[in-house]
Structures are given as C-alpha cells and as structure tokens.
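quick q for whoever's on today - can somebody do inverse folding on this one?? i tried earlier but teh output was garbage lol. tokens:
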C-alpha cells in the first residue's frame, strides 16, 4: 500500500484569485473557492492555501501544458495572458519552441510545442516538471507506487498506472533550496491506512521531518531526499 497524491498545493497571496486563473487556463471545475477538481485523468486536485511568505526563487515544480498544433499552442498562451499571465525569460533563448509564462503570482509554467514525443500520450497537463535528483525520482516512485517511465542520464520520470501527467526530475545541477516551497504535494495515507504508519514508511524510504512551526494542524510536513517539502494529511482528510 502506498501514499495517494491527492493535491498539488500552491501557497498564494490571493488563493481565490489564483484558483480562478488556473480554472480558466485548465478548464477545471471549482470544488469550493480555493480547490479545483480535474475533468480528465490527472488524478489529483489543485489547492490554493493562503500565505504571506514571499517567493525566494523558482518553484520546484512547474506545469508543462501540451499543444496539438502551433495554433493550439498560441490559443493557450493568449488565454493565459488574458487571464493575467505574463511572458517569462528564464534564459530559454529565441530558438526555444516552448513558451514560458508565469501566472499572476509568478508561478512558472510552459506551453509546450506540438509533436513533443515525450508527452505525446499525455493530456493537457503533460507533465509536472521538477528540479530534483535521480534519488528523488526513485523515492517518489516508491512513495506513490508509480512506475518509472524514464531513467536516463540522471533524469527520471514517473507516471501513475491510470495515466495522467508525468512527474519529472531533471537531474544535476540542482538549485539550492532558498526557502519554504510554495508548490508542493499533499499526500493521503492509503485507503484504510494510518497517517503515522505512512509517515514512518516514507521516513524509511529516505524522507526527513521538517519543522515549519504552527499553521499546519494535523498535517505532517516531510521533505524528500533533495529537501523539497510535502505534506502527509490525516487519514480521511483528503
């Protein structure tokens, strides 16, 4: 039995506003003011939690959104810009085929060119592209029970057995941790499982405990082998 990835959680200055932005980009259904529910096989929700903490660097994860044609790619970009996104220069250069944007709170995401073979079988959210080592890719494969679908040149990727986006780690060089993660996983214990037992299993796989002070009542905050934070929710709090 393994953890369930129930949500990708964003810290936000304006959670309802950021939820509205991503609902407009993705076409997902609201499940309350600050949670979005997928309409496809993505398998996890988006949650937006209030936080006044400033951004201290790029997020660990960003979305890679797929396109079916150059026109479709441009439509996605135009829709995002109209909702409040902006273009972002991350050193991609003029020859890059993907278009890099930031949402209204600076969270990076890419709109990928059509005919990208790595994401060919994926839906609109093709990948959660992450900064991380091969060891962390292996950790998350064991933590979630998702098989590796890429393991080459220190780069790894996993994908749920039911489909949905790939989760990727780009390998070295890794960015230094510069503060608390503003985008992170929310996990739930396996069905019928116990939070404490699941935390112990994750620690045995290589996670570490993180002390972030008050404000996460009932949640256990851990870090993966690269030091990136995630939360284990109480049983029944998914």
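ok took a stab at it. sequence:
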């Amino acid at each position: 039995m393994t953890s369930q990835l129930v949500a990708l959680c964003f810290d936000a200055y304006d959670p309802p506003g950021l939820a509205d932005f991503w609902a407009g980009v993705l076409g997902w259904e609201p499940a309350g003011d600050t949670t979005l529910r997928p309409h496809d096989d993505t398998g996890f929700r988006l949650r937006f939690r209030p936080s006044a903490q400033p951004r201290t660097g790029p997020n660990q994860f960003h979305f890679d959104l797929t396109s079916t044609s150059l026109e479709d790619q441009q439509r996605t970009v135009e829709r995002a810009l109209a909702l409040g996104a902006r273009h972002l220069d991350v050193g991609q250069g003029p020859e890059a085929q993907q278009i890099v944007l930031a949402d209204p709170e600076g969270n990076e995401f890419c709109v990928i060119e059509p005919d990208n073979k790595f994401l060919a079988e994926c839906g609109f959210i093709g990948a959660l592209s992450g900064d991380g080592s091969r060891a962390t890719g292996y950790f998350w494969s064991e933590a979630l029970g998702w098989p590796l679908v890429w393991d080459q040149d220190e780069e790894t990727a996993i994908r749920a057995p039911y489909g949905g986006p790939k989760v990727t780690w780009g390998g070295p060089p890794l960015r230094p941790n510069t503060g608390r993660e503003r985008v992170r996983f929310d996990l739930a214990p396996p069905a019928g499982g116990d939070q404490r037992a699941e935390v112990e299993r994750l620690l045995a796989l290589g996670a570490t405990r993180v002390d972030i002070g008050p404000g996460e009542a009932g949640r256990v905050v851990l870090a993966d082998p690269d030091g990136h934070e995630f939360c284990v929710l109480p049983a029944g709090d998914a």
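fwiw Residues 138 and 148 are 8 Å apart (CA to CA). also The helical segments are 15-26, 70-83, 134-144, 195-205. so keep that in mind when u check it
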